[in-house]
Design brief:
The structure is a single chain. The protein contains two helices and eleven strands. By secondary structure, the chain is mostly beta strands. The strands form two sheets. It has an eight-stranded antiparallel β-barrel with strand order 2-4-5-6-7-8-9-10. A two-stranded antiparallel ribbon has the order 1-11. About 30% of the residues are buried.
Length: about 240
């Protein structure tokens, strides 16, 4: 009888203990914060190539006596090399970029003098520009502006006479573009630039008339595609925004 009572009491205690344990609140699981996303880093030095086309206007304005061709179209292709450096903080990307392109930009129109054709050509353009961009991870939208340099070649020709002159002129360039990396090192870009070079003032070698000067003006718009290789100094960065 004692054994029966002892066994029954033990079973009751075990049952009540199990029931109480089932009703006790359980600890909430510890939630770990997800890792910060790893984003593409635009910081670093890069080299690249570019190519595209240009179109714009030129004009030859002669003095004493005054005459002008009026604006006429110039256009052609271009291609060359690029070097630059970017520094990224948050989603802002600051940079500087330089490029030199060989060009074949040209156009012509009748000169004010009967029987002559006036033409303008350009064989190279260089720019040194600042860049400011907004990075959405692997896409960079940027604006750019700075210094431009290039040659302006003038020609006034008839069947029997050819007058030519050329000079290197400074100016400015401004525009914007979109750049996207295909890998951590290679990126492609599409860019628009407007380039203005200061007028080239040329005397008798351009006009064929002693004491007369002609001012040759040059403005073009450029669309270029580019391929850049970024040297992987910084690697990917952890997002902080």
């Amino acid at each position: 009888m004692k054994k029966f009572l002892f066994g029954s009491t033990a079973l009751i205690v075990m049952f009540v203990g199990s029931a109480l344990a089932a009703d006790m609140p359980r600890k909430a699981p510890i939630l770990k914060a997800p890792p910060a996303p790893v984003l593409y880093s635009w910081s670093g030095f890069y080299l690249g190539i570019n190519g595209g086309g240009a179109w714009g206007r030129s004009r030859h304005d002669a003095f004493t006596p005054a005459s002008t061709t009026g604006n006429f179209n110039i256009s052609g292709g271009l291609g060359g090399g690029t070097a630059g450096w970017n520094w990224q903080t948050g989603q802002f990307v600051f940079g500087v970029e330089a490029d030199v392109d060989g060009t074949d930009i040209r156009g012509s129109t009748p000169c004010p003098g009967a029987g002559f054709t006036c033409s303008t050509s350009n064989t190279w353009l260089a720019t040194l520009r600042g860049r400011l961009g907004w990075a959405a991870d692997r896409a960079l939208i940027y604006g750019t502006a700075g210094f431009a340099d290039g040659d302006i070649r003038q020609r006034a020709a008839s069947i029997a006479v050819v007058n030519t002159g050329s000079a290197t002129r400074a100016g400015w360039a401004a525009g914007g573009g979109l750049e996207y990396p295909f890998t951590n090192n290679w990126s492609g870009k599409l860019e628009y630039l407007h380039v203005h070079l200061d007028s080239f003032n040329c005397g008798v070698v351009c006009t064929g008339v002693a004491g007369q000067t002609v001012a040759v003006k040059f403005d073009v718009n450029m669309i270029r595609a580019g391929l850049n290789f970024k040297f992987d100094w910084g690697g990917p960065v952890v997002a902080r925004y």
